[in-house]
């Protein structure tokens, strides 16, 4: 068996397990919180290791940075699910203060760079992951419900975009999308991926509308969970654009550091940042999109 074929098989098996774990984990609130708590912690740990090992005169506190990011995710989950009030974020703020003040005593060569890369990890990884709780927990008139379809659909759109872009790019790709950062991406692939996502979004919209009609629930009463097909398509387009930018941002980070993959925790897929790069932009962008619908369309 050739090396290329072997790598393809490994990648396919890993991808299948990854999708199964992600889908299963998002079926229930406890599973989703546990899954993304782990993802957040491992991703920040990977990021801080890359920074410490590949950037000269930078030494961030891996343990405290990872603990802070995990706590932010759990605090956001607790707040969005209605289990706590805003005071739950105070320990996180104290941890951030500690990360700043502690640099006074470490004697590291470049304190400014340490602070910058430490805060980048919180803003680039911890905060975006924590916003998935906004999608998962819906608060309507003080009653909090858990949604599987909204957070899961973000990843379905990202996976469909990747698959569609790969297929159409392989067949028709001629014009490079961003050759300076990602030479393999083409405009044809990106457009093809977007078309696939629009079709999937329309299908989800049709299914959810049909389901609510069977249950006798109106669109207005169901809130953001079951909105129109056009709004689902809009969400899909948002995920396509910001997911692509997220991929390019991580590619730029890797090129700046001088590495090919962020890690090797996922055989055939690289590291956690390689696997979740698109979602780090797509998740918060989806949250903004939903709030924009709420305030400017549904008002």
Describe the protein in words.
The strands form two sheets. The chain has a two-stranded antiparallel ribbon with strand order 1-2. It has a two-stranded antiparallel sheet with strand order 3-4. 74% of the residues lie in helices and 5% in strands. The chain has helices spanning 3-25, 29-54, 62-80, 90-101, 103-106, 111-130, 132-136, 149-172, 187-215, 219-222, 229-257, 272-297, and strands at 137-140, 143-146, 176-178, 182-186. Helix 2 runs antiparallel to helix 6 and helix 11 runs antiparallel to helix 12 (272-297). The protein is mainly alpha-helical. A hairpin with a 3-residue loop joins strand 3 (176-178) and strand 4. The termini are far apart.
Overall mean pLDDT stands at 88
Q: Radius of gyration over alpha carbons? A: 20 Å
Helix content: over 70%
Total number of beta strands: 4
What is the topology, as strand order, of the major beta sheet? 1-2
Q: Largest sheet, if any?
A: 2 strands, antiparallel
Shape: globular
How far is the first residue's CA from the last residue's CA?
60 Å
Instruction: Give the topology string: H per helix, E per strand.
Output: HHHHHHHEEHEEHHHH
The poorly predicted ranges are: 213-225
Structural class: mainly alpha
Strand content: 5-15%
Our count of helices gives 12
């Amino acid at each position: 068996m050739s090396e290329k074929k072997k790598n393809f098989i490994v990648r396919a098996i890993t991808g299948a397990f990854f999708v199964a774990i992600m889908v299963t984990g998002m079926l229930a609130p406890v599973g989703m919180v546990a899954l993304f708590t782990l993802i957040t912690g491992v991703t920040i740990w990977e990021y801080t290791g890359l920074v410490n090992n590949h950037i000269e005169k930078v030494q961030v506190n891996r343990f405290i940075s990872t603990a802070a990011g995990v706590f932010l995710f759990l605090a956001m989950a607790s707040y969005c699910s209605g289990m706590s009030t805003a005071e739950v974020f105070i320990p996180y703020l104290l941890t951030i203060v500690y990360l700043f003040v502690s640099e006074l005593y470490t004697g590291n060569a470049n304190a400014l760079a340490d602070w910058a890369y430490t805060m980048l990890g919180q803003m680039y990884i911890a905060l975006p992951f924590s916003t998935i709780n906004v999608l998962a927990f819906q608060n309507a008139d003080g009653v909090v419900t858990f949604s599987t379809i909204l957070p899961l659909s973000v990843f379905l759109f990202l996976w469909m975009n990747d698959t569609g872009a790969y297929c159409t790019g392989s067949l028709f790709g001629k014009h490079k999308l961003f050759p300076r950062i990602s030479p393999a991406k083409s405009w044809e692939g990106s457009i093809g991926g977007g078309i696939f996502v629009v079709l999937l979004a329309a299908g989800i919209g049709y299914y959810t509308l049909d389901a609510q009609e069977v249950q006798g629930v109106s669109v207005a009463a169901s809130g953001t969970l079951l909105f129109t097909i056009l709004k689902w398509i809009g969400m899909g387009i948002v995920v396509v654009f910001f997911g692509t930018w997220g991929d390019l941002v991580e590619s730029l980070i890797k090129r700046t550091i001088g590495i090919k993959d962020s890690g090797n925790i996922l055989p055939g897929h690289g590291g956690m940042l390689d696997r979740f790069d698109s979602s780090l932009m797509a998740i918060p962008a989806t949250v903004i999109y939903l709030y924009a619908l709420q305030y400017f369309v549904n008002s």
